[in-house]
């Protein structure tokens, strides 16, 4: 790649440089950066949108295993030059078929459909993405946020709640899910007030799953969020007292510290250590 750049700097004239690029791409077609450099070279030298469009069918078979930025180059090109919705959709469909492993593929494809008022199509893309990234809690939280926003914009509140219920297991590994749920409650309290008991249950299950010793900060943030939700949305004194007691227990647990591990109690192959806890002064 470095040698190619040096060769190009020494040469002048579009035809000569173009010839060098095309020769290089024959043997280095697996280099993402080379394709990007080539397309930008064509764009800056010719500024011919139709010539660039012609490169897509010519080289398309190389792109399925390459960096998505190559395809996004053509997408941006069409959108900047007022390409038709169908011409842009061709590239998004290509990405959904060839690079569905990239979360950006689904996000950008769904946003394209939203811009063209194809809300049902965008929802289908988000649904598929939830299945594809089922084992990635961070990706799921991100997609849930975008999907639920689209549902809310289309007045489908029940589907939003159903969506979060279906994926409540994420709460055990990602506090972002819980924070999104809390935000939904605050912004749409009239609807979610009757769901508060279920929301508290989800928070409680998540808190039970936290390791307080290694994730005390996450535990505290989650617990404080729960307390705020209950104080804002519930007039039930027992529920309020319950979450406050939980916070009191959490504080007591943090005040405990390990001070001693005993010597083995007997001279055998298996011995036992005694852990002693006392309050910090």
Short description:
This protein has 15 helices and 2 strands.
Structure description:
This protein has helices at residues 2-10, 14-27, 32-46, 49-59, 68-80, 85-98, 103-115, 119-132, 137-153, 157-166, 175-187, 189-192, 196-209, 216-233, 237-254; strands at 256-261, 275-279. The longest helix has 18 residues, at 216-233. It is built from 15 helices and two strands. The radius of gyration is 28 Å and the shape is elongated. A two-stranded antiparallel ribbon has the order 1-2. It is mainly alpha-helical. Helix content is 70%, strand content 4%. It starts with a helix and ends with a strand.
The helix content, as a percent range, equals over 70%
Largest sheet: 2 strands, antiparallel
Judging from the principal axes of the Cα atoms, what is the shape? Answer: elongated
Secondary structure class reads mainly alpha
Number of strands: 2
Q: Which SSEs are present, and which pair or pack?
A:
Layout (H helix, E strand, L loop, with lengths): L1 H9 L3 H14 L4 H15 L2 H11 L8 H13 L4 H14 L4 H13 L3 H14 L4 H17 L3 H10 L8 H13 L1 H4 L3 H14 L6 H18 L3 H18 L1 E6 L13 E5 L2
Antiparallel strand pairs: 1-2
Q: What features would you highlight for this structure?
A:
two-stranded antiparallel ribbon, 2 strands, 15 helices, 4% strand, mainly alpha
